[in-house]
Specification:
The complex is a heterodimer of chains A (235) and B (143). By secondary structure, chain A is of the alpha+beta class. Chain A is built from ten helices and five strands. With 143 residues, chain B is mainly beta. Classes of the chains: A alpha+beta (235), B mainly beta (143). At the A-B interface, helix 1, helix 2, strand 1, helix 8 and strand 4 of A face strand 4, strand 5, strand 7, strand 8 and strand 9 of B.
């Protein structure tokens, strides 16, 4: 999915003829939107426009409406025109897609440890998981894995957390080291602080404490150049 | 999963993890717009008796309008100037929206400062940035 819906619009540009590339972009844009967990009416209308246009162009470009090429139009191509109406009917399709069940079947299969009686073992694994999930749903405080943070993490408010590596010393941003950083910092402080004379000392050196990573409320972790450089040095 | 892409001066490595798309780049709100940026580091600062937390980031330019229109918003190509001090910005951490990948866009042989955005499937928010970003050459006449 990442190769097709993430990288494909950028990599084959100027390699594919433009009409085929634009046809691909219609598909990518439509599916990127439809796979979101929340969609507005405007998004659904845009999805429908892109996907219907993609299917129409696909029929013109590839099977050219010839009966002998009808087998080019697979069910999955025709299915695209139903995505937007079905989203209105049952909600975001990413939440009801088949791959969730397939994933569950896959990782339950990986847990099988008894080759002599695999189906009984699979059934027991599934039963244990259902019991665990039911307990977590009834008592969310039991689910410690979801909010586990590294040691020395710092809550930054609104569900954001600064994660180590943390620089134990306060770093002095000096003119000689990186004047651009200092200038940007001083400008920001002067603009946003009512008592900037207390923040900016006469030496015009500002001391800050650096963190390398930021955990976002959506579960992603943003890394930083400073943290990655430190890690590369250790390697 | 690790894969390399690019040749010559455009070496770039994507570190794809199970739940994190790419590592250094973020999508954030900057000057009331959604922009892409490369995080330098995160830090806390005492302002008016209260500790606030910020990201120091190098902000990418606006997406190329022509390619954006041609690709129906599927391809957002931004320029990145690591040397420019003007692109350096301090952003409150609460304005960071998501982690994205910025992949070198190598189709113009004369340029090596272009990148296109790859967002995690299900986190599509790149369309929030205004398509009619400030353009000094355009007239203000709306009929």
């Amino acid at each position: 999915m990442l190769w097709l819906y993430g990288l494909c619009p950028g990599l084959p540009y100027t390699i594919l003829p433009e009409k085929y590339w634009q046809n691909l972009c219609q598909l990518v844009r439509g599916l990127r939107l439809i796979l979101a967990r929340e969609l507005s009416d405007k998004d659904i209308a845009e999805v429908h426009t892109h996907l219907v246009q993609f299917v129409y162009d696909f029929e013109n470009l590839y099977y050219q409406r010839k009966e002998s090429r009808l087998h080019f139009v697979h069910q999955c191509i025709h299915n695209l025109v139903h995505f937007a109406p079905e989203t209105i009917r049952v909600g975001p399709l990413a939440l009801v897609a088949q791959w969730l069940m397939e994933r569950t079947i896959g990782n339950l299969g990986q847990e099988i440890c008894l080759p002599s009686d695999p189906y009984a073992n699979l059934q027991m694994r599934a039963e244990l998981r259902v019991q665990k999930n039911a307990l977590k749903a009834m008592f969310p405080e039991l689910d410690r894995a979801s909010d586990r943070l590294p040691n020395h993490s710092l809550a930054a408010g609104s569900g954001f957390y600064l994660l180590p590596k943390k620089d134990r010393r306060l770093i002095s941003v000096r003119h000689s080291q990186s004047s651009g950083v200092l200038t940007t910092l001083l400008d920001y402080i002067e603009l946003n602080s009512t008592e900037c004379s207390n923040v900016i000392p006469e030496t015009r050196n500002v001391q800050i404490c650096c963190y390398s990573r930021l955990r976002l409320p959506n579960g992603q972790t943003a890394q930083s150049l400073w943290g990655e450089r430190n890690r590369q040095k250790r390697i | 999963m690790t894969c390399s892409y690019g040749e010559g001066t455009c070496q770039f490595t994507l570190h794809l993890r199970t739940n994190i798309l790419i590592y250094l780049f973020s999508q954030l709100k900057y000057a009331n717009e959604v922009r892409y940026a490369k995080s330098q580091f995160f830090f806390g600062l005492d302002l008016d008796g209260e500790t606030k937390y910020f990201a120091l980031a190098l902000v990418f330019g606006h997406p190329d309008k022509g390619l954006r229109a041609l690709s129906k918003n599927a391809l957002l190509v931004c320029t990145y100037d690591a040397e420019s001090q003007e692109s350096l910005a301090i952003v409150p951490v609460q304005d960071v929206i998501s982690v994205v990948g910025m992949v070198p866009f190598v189709h113009d042989v004369d340029r090596d400062d272009q990148y296109f955005a790859v967002e995690k499937i299900g986190h599509v928010t790149g369309d929030e940035s205004p398509q009619d970003a400030p353009d000094e050459e355009e007239d203000d006449q709306d009929i």
